[in-house]
Amino acid sequence: MPTITKKAVSAGPTVKKKKKRISVAAAKDKGRRLQKRLLELIGELLNVPYGPDEDLASRPMGQSGTDIRISPKLLKRFPYSIECKNQEKWSVIQWVKQAKENQKPDTEWLLCMSKNHHDDVVLMTVEHFFDLLKRIHNAEKTKNKKL
């Protein structure tokens, strides 16, 4: 005699809730917040003012080029072409490509990324990172010799 088994009864199809998309205006404002934070940090580091008519400024959303506009004079002190991304879904490979495409001559590209409830992150090449460490190390050696 065959064995009869009960089949599990489904309550119906599983319904996935759609995540609410952020509005374009809110997304641009979110991006501006990261740009403003970087302007403040760079301005403090170099002891320079920042703003629309200064050597250090935020590029308006939608314009091509680096997200932080740095004058040629200031690029000598801070030689970076900066791309900012403040998004929940990260597309790092595409962003690195964009940072390289917007890279100005005689600068290093720098990708600054942020996401809600996480630390801000900076991405650069390994070679440049270790070059910075060498410079710091050499500066410390020189400083210690003078003492």
What does this structure look like?
There is one protein chain. This protein is an alpha+beta fold. It has a single domain (24-146), classed as 3-Layer(aba) Sandwich (Trna Endonuclease, Chain: A, domain 1). Helices cover 39% and strands 16% of the residues. The chain is built from 4 helices and 5 strands; from the N terminus they run αββαβαββα. The protein has helices spanning 24-46, 72-75, 92-101, 126-146; strands at residues 56-58, 68-70, 80-86, 108-114, 121-123. A 3-stranded mixed β-sheet has the order 3-4-5. The longest helix is centred in the first third of the chain and has 23 residues, at 24-46. The termini are far apart. The model has no long low-confidence stretch (mean pLDDT 86).
Walk me through the topology.
Layout: H1 24-46, E1 56-58, E2 68-70, H2 72-75, E3 80-86, H3 92-101, E4 108-114, E5 121-123, H4 126-146
Parallel strand pairs: 3-4
Antiparallel strand pairs: 1-2, 4-5
Characteristics:
147 residues; alpha+beta; two-stranded antiparallel sheet; 4 helices; 5 strands; 39% helix
The biggest beta sheet is recorded as:
3 strands, mixed
Structural class: alpha+beta
Please give the alpha-carbon distance between the first and last residues.
97 Å
CATH C-level class is Alpha Beta
Q: How many structural domains does the protein architecture include?
A: 1
CATH architecture label name: 3-Layer(aba) Sandwich
Low-confidence stretches: none
SSE order in H/E notation? HEEHEHEEH
Rg of Cα set:
24 Å
Q: How would you sum up the global shape? A: globular
Beta-strand content bin: 15-25%
What is the name of the CATH topology? Trna Endonuclease, Chain: A, domain 1
Overall pLDDT level: 86
> How much helix, percentage-wise, in residues?
25-40%
| Largest sheet: spatial strand order | 3-4-5
